[in-house]
Design a protein that fits this description.
- The chain is 57% helix and 0% strand.
- It has 105 residues and is mostly helical.
- It has a domain of 46 residues.
Length: 105
């Protein structure tokens, strides 16, 4: 006979399951229910303290390669990307050099 899990603890299990991959949902849920089965008075705070390390054990973080976040506007170098930008320079560009003579005289 299993001890019924309160609704707030059951919703905590489903919230912790949401960040896992779909193939890991069932394994984590079974492990969480077996970890909480031995507790007679399991509130959400105690359940959270017990289940977070268990959830981390089931969590596989995604590969965080640098190339995945780099912009991919041009797959290979093009004439446009290798040349300097065109257009009128910004007003603030070279302001120190322009204003140096104003201050001197």
């Amino acid at each position: 006979m299993s001890i019924p899990i309160p609704d707030d603890v059951d919703s905590l299990i489903s919230e912790l399951t949401a960040s896992l991959q779909p193939q890991q949902h069932a394994a984590f849920e079974a492990a969480a229910r077996s970890a909480l089965a031995g507790l007679e008075c399991a509130g959400p705070g105690l359940a959270y303290r017990l289940l977070v390390p268990l959830q981390r054990a089931h969590f596989d973080p995604p590969d965080d390669a640098v190339e995945a976040h780099a912009p991919r506007h041009y797959r290979r170098p093009t004439k446009l990307s290798s040349l300097p930008p065109i257009g009128r320079p910004d007003r603030a560009e070279g302001a120190q050099e322009r204003n140096r003579f104003k201050r001197a005289g």
